[in-house]
Amino acid sequence: MQYFIQQLINGLTLGSIYGLIAIGYTMVYGIIGMINFAHGDIFMVGAFTALIVFLILGAMFYSVPVVAALLIMMIVSMLLVSLYNWVIEKIAYRPLRGSFRLAPLITAIGMSIVLSNFVQVTQGPRNKPIPPMVSQVYNVYGISISLKQIIIVVVTALLLVIFWYVVNKTALGRAQRACEQDRKMAALLGVNVDRTISITFIIGASLAAVAGTLFLMYYGVVVFSDGFVPGVKAFTAAVLGGIGSIPGAVIGGLAIGFIESIWSAYFSIDYKDVAAFSILAIVLIFMPSGILGRPEVEKV
Amino acid sequence: MAMAETKNSAGSANIAAGLREAVYAAVIAFFMFVLFIGVKTEQNIHNELVLVTRWGLLATVVVLAAVVRFLQVVYLMPFLASQKTVDAKTGLLPTSVALRVFSKRNLIIGVVVAGALLLFGNAIQEAVGPYWGAYVGLLRAAAIIFVIAWGIFSFRNFISTYSYSLGFILLVLYPVVMVSLFGFQGSLKWVDNFGIQILIYVMLAWGLNIVVGLAGLLDLGYVAFYAVGAYSYALLGTQFGWSFWILLPAAGAMAAMWGIILGFPVLRLRGDYLAIVTLAFGEIIRLVLINWREVTNGAAGISGIPKVSFFGLISFNVSDPNYISKVFGIAQSGSYYKIFLYYLILALCMLTGYVTIRLRRLPVGRAWEALREDEIACRSLGINTTTTKLTAFAIGAMFGGFAGSFFAARQGFVSPESFIFLESAIILAIVVLGGMGSLGGIAVAAAVMVGGTEILREMQFLKQIFGPDFTPELYRMLLFGAAMVIVMVWKPRGFVGSREPTAFLKESKAVSGSFTKEGHG
């Protein structure tokens, strides 16, 4: 039982990171109906920015309190990664709005290749390890919970609350939901559609940047190709939860996290990704629009 | 006078706007690149990460961004806009610019420069040293390319009329030309790295085109079928020693079977759900190949895959009694095998293209196109969408399997490394960039994208310009990704956009306004 709960906690940690990335996918999909393939690499750029900021802090000051360091890493990473996503949206996706469906998908894949290779060229192809930032582990009834895991879950929960508030209670969120339902009508009613879409990309990027910082803190290592696997898993999570639905993205992320940690604990660690992808396929066979997705009504 | 004034003030306003945009671009570029180009993380001897600063490089990149943006706003955008207006007024096509570039005067300059550098280039390079010599090489390459481009441009009508037969003749003669230019040993690189490599991608893209371009099903895991074909040949060939000619159809059938197995569960899915399940399927196949070590030998891969023989009559193994040089009494060389492989993949490509063209005229091909255009209309007309989708998946997968077994035979070695998602993405990009559904466009896209990035490996003279640490290969994928974005933004319909259904009504009949809401039926 203790072992099982331990796995649940590991799954919750992983799932939080996937959930944060998945929100970016699902929001972009909801508003412009495109799979933002570069989002996984945006997450990787976030982790790398956090790494470089960490090293700069280490080089400039003798010692920095861990909380302050984490906060600075997160904020710098959020700002810079938002800038990246904003620029990418402007040069690669905006000119293709209204074009056929595959065109922005191809530019997104192109951007994903550009981002990962840009980091490889500028920062080198090797693994980048950092010394552990947080190492306390608490023991509760024989279950070990590390401080890292607590930080990840708390930060994620906090961000989700803020995010929920923004989407549901502010004018910006209203504009976003309006664009999601009918972009043309929203524009007629005075919503600045271009700006709303830009802000959607910025919000998605900042959540991915936080996920990247947490990822770096949790694993202590990052490499230029790290965007792909978490990106695909988060995308899987978004689809599993029903793409376009924000609570669905979080639920999907947690589901993928649980499946992975439980599968690797009880069955085989080699096949954990196979399990996650197979369950996605099985769920989609029975629920073709995901767990919380609205089934599309077909009209001619 | 008044016109000149407005033009002047417009020009200065333009320059002001350009300067403003340039400043914005510089600021954005600074913040984007300050951490990634300004500093570099490197391991020191204690295996700790340390920071190295590169402020000079950062400044160069920022200034470059500003200059490019300035030129774009001040010259490129007004130029493109004026192109459009001139067109509307006079009916002149944008080729008028091309006509100016490809004038007779420029041709003479190009021929003179190319000829002079071909004759005296080496002497000049020796005289000025390796650094400036590299620029001489660059100029020579540019002059030769210009002369060739001039030729293509001036015969453009002829070429576009006979494009397919000309392309075919060119492809058939390609190894002959390369051998006569560079000799057997020298041609190896051109036939193998360029010819065979590009043709493999052409074949894969034509296969995927059946699924994506004709049936309109977005498949992000096409590389899975390529892997199935490659491993079928690798395993059966090494374990049982069966010949390529038996295993080629077997690999195709195996891949087609996997296409159907994948097709069944995804029949109900639409659009992007289909995309993610196919992506997941591709990843599952790759992960199984890595982890099922007893059969696939894991990440180490399978080596010693037998070579293809010419239907068992002529072998390409030196030790065999019917080795090619013994049969014909010629000198031993590895390039015979490569040339043979080139013609083999060319034949496979032609088969794929021929089958695609024929299928488009059969009921199943029409059904695919109908499915792509409107699934609901398709269903209400009584087309069985289940079998239509499954045949598309199976036939597309079969060609992927053929290409896979050819790939295994060519490399002599397969490992899961070759079947990553990036390959699927590249193949899909070629299909979309070529203009979905157009075979010629896809072939051109494959040649440009794959050949273009391959040619970077050849640009060793760049090393002399940017210093010995500069490795052009590193920038290969970076440029590939950038090219994907630029081409897509520039031509969203692909190089040759032809997505019209093969069969369609020539004109829509006007219907009396009382029958419809908008006046046209």
General description of the model:
Chain A: It is found in: Cell membrane. Chain A: One of its GO terms (molecular function) is L-isoleucine transmembrane transporter activity. Chain A: Its main location: membrane. The complex is a heterodimer of chains A (300) and B (521). Chain A is mainly alpha-helical and 300 residues long. Chain A has one domain. In chain A, 73% of the residues lie in helices and 4% in strands. Chain A has helices at residues 2-32, 39-60, 66-93, 102-123, 147-169, 171-181, 183-188, 193-219, 228-241, 246-266, 272-286, and strands spanning 128-129, 137-140, 143-146, 221-222. Chain A is globular and about 60 Å long. In chain B, helix 6 crosses helix 17. In chain B, the strands form two sheets. Chain B has a two-stranded antiparallel sheet with strand order 1-2. In chain B, strands 3-4 form a two-stranded antiparallel ribbon. Helices cover 73% and strands 3% of the residues of chain B. The radius of gyration of chain B is 27 Å and the shape is globular. Chain B has two domains: 1-92, no CATH class; 197-490, ABC transporter involved in vitamin B12 uptake, BtuC, CATH 1.10.3470. The chains are: A mainly alpha (300), B mainly alpha (521). At the A-B interface, helix 2, helix 3, helix 4, strand 1 and helix 9 of A face helix 1, strand 1, strand 2, helix 9 and helix 16 of B.
Helix and strand layout, with pairings?
The complex is a heterodimer of chains A (300) and B (521).
Chain A lengths: L1 H31 L6 H22 L5 H28 L8 H22 L4 E2 L7 E4 L2 E4 H23 L1 H11 L1 H6 L4 H27 L1 E2 L5 H14 L4 H21 L5 H15 L14
Antiparallel strand pairs in A: 1-4, 2-3
Helix pairs in contact in A: 1-5, 1-8, 1-9, 1-10, 2-3, 2-4, 2-8, 2-9, 3-8, 5-6, 5-8, 6-8, 9-10, 9-11, 10-11
Chain B lengths: L1 H32 L5 E5 L5 E5 L1 H36 L4 H7 L2 H51 L1 H6 L1 H52 L8 H18 L3 H23 L4 H21 L1 H4 L5 E2 L20 H5 L6 H27 L1 H11 L1 H6 L4 H27 L1 E2 L6 H13 L5 H18 L4 H6 L9 H15 L31
Antiparallel strand pairs in B: 1-2, 3-4
